[in-house]
Write a structure and sequence with these properties.
The complex is a heterodimer of chains A (107) and B (122). Chain A is mainly beta and 107 residues long. In chain A, 0% of the residues lie in helices and 50% in strands. Chain A contains no helices and eleven strands. In chain A, strands 2, 4, 5, 6, 9, 10 and 11 form a seven-stranded mixed beta sheet that branches. A four-stranded antiparallel beta sheet of chain A has the order 1-3-8-7, with no helix packed on it. Chain B contains one helix and eleven strands; from the N terminus they run βββββββββαββ. In chain B, strands 2, 4, 5, 6, 9, 10 and 11 form a seven-stranded mixed beta sheet that branches. In chain B, strands 1-3-8-7 form a four-stranded antiparallel beta sheet, with no helix packed on it. In chain B, 39% of the residues are buried. The chains are: A mainly beta (107), B mainly beta (122). Chains A and B meet through strand 4, strand 5 and strand 10 of A and strand 5, strand 9 and strand 10 of B.
Chain lengths: 107, 122
């Protein structure tokens, strides 16, 4: 199985901050890496697929990068609506796996 | 417009079998590259992938749960059913179904149901 390790597990940030979350895969997954945002009591929402492609309707302050084993989700300027938990997920092979999540909290 | 909705019992007893149905609209599970998966999330914990069924009836399961899971589809009714046997309190979670498309988004889960909370308790 491919393991995904996210860091940090949580962070505190202020509105307007630049936030970076990393996801490391236990083996090469090319660009088969996806990012989701989840708010309490809600289903996850796809933000980025194929490492850097922005899902339709997602604000451009979200961006993704990386390939191989190391990936990054960046929020260029944090908005109040962005406080949530973020998950990476690989679709290179089954079993599909998710990272353990990164909770972005208000400082 | 793609929508998915989970349905099934919200309270099951230990050792019983859980059966969840995902009813969807806005896409066809006969389209090449399309699949429907199940993902669960215990309270306060991370997402866990369970199973996936594709347009060609290819079925994939979580290795740790493979012996307890069965996934099937009814393309005429636009439904996917997940069964999980021998339920235990540790299986208490919100269960989501989600659509994936190998052609459009490299197999990411682009559309999700609202989730079905399941509690396992005697």
């Amino acid at each position: 199985d491919i393991q995904l390790t996210q860091s940090p597990s949580s962070l505190s940030a202020s509105v307007g901050d630049r936030v970076t979350i990393t996801c490391r895969a236990s083996q090469i997954i090319d660009n088969y890496l996806n990012w989701y945002q989840q708010k309490p009591g809600k289903a996850p929402n796809l933000l980025i697929y194929a490492a850097f492609k922005l899902q339709s309707g997602v604000p451009s302050r979200f961006s993704g990068s990386g390939s191989g084993t190391d990936f990054t989700l960046t929020i260029s300027s944090l908005e109040p609506d962005d406080f949530a938990t973020y998950y990476c997920q690989q679709s290179h092979s089954t079993p599909r796996t998710f990272g353990q999540g990164t909770k972005v909290e208000i400082k | 417009q793609i929508t998915l909705k989970e349905s099934g019992l919200t309270l099951v007893k230990p050792s019983q079998t859980l059966t969840l149905t995902c009813s969807f609209s806005g896409f066809s599970l006969t389209t090449t590259g399309v699949g429907v998966g199940w993902i669960r999330q215990p309270p306060g914990k991370a997402l866990e992938w369970l199973a996936l069924i594709f347009w060609d009836d290819d079925k994939r399961y979580s290795p740790s749960l493979k012996n307890r899971l069965t996934i099937s589809k009814d393309t005429s009714r636009n439904q996917v059913v997940l069964s999980m046997t021998n339920m235990d309190p540790v299986d208490t979670a919100t269960y989501y179904c989600a659509q994936t498309d190998l052609m459009r988004n490299v197999g990411a889960f682009g559309y999700w149901g609202q989730g079905a909370p399941v509690t396992v308790s005697s």
